[in-house]
Amino acid sequence: MAEESGPWLVVGLGNPGREYAGNRHNVGFMVADLVAARVGGKLGRHRRAMAEVGEGRLGFGGPKLVVAKPLTFMNLSGGPVAALAQFFKVSPGQIIAVHDELDIDYGQVRVKCGGGEGGHNGLRSMSKSLGTKDYVRVRFGVGRPPGRQDPADYVLSDFSSAERKELEFLVDRAADVVESVVTRGVEPTQNEYHGR
Q: What number is the average pLDDT over the span 83-97?
């Protein structure tokens, strides 16, 4: 993969506030926290965007990562992302959105570039604010709600006790996927992780 000069912008999607911290909808924040910790980027309030931001490098002298958690609610995530992309001069192809995905079973992590938003308000807001859908998505499967539970209520509820037993491992895997996209590209990452 040809290395571009600018940094990568890794955006964890979620809702701010302690009451949302353990929600399925906030798994993007969980992954962003881990990626930031791995690259030594302490998250702090950014002066130009409504977001917590940390910067660091992947490995010694490796690619620069800007890790962000928008502080707006999910459906307004695009504004802070676009502001950060402009501030750090990041092209859409080097933006990675990490988000929950209803259409993927719990325990699965998938990656793709571009495509639809699948009804995800955070992605919809990003696509609108960036003026393109051509950014990378790391999709963390949360599965469909049981019975007739409303999908909106489901994603805004916490992971079950059974799910929480695996959650730390899966967040770790999702962070590995982010790193793989940065260092190797989307296709090699799909080849390695989509079979699992």
A: 96
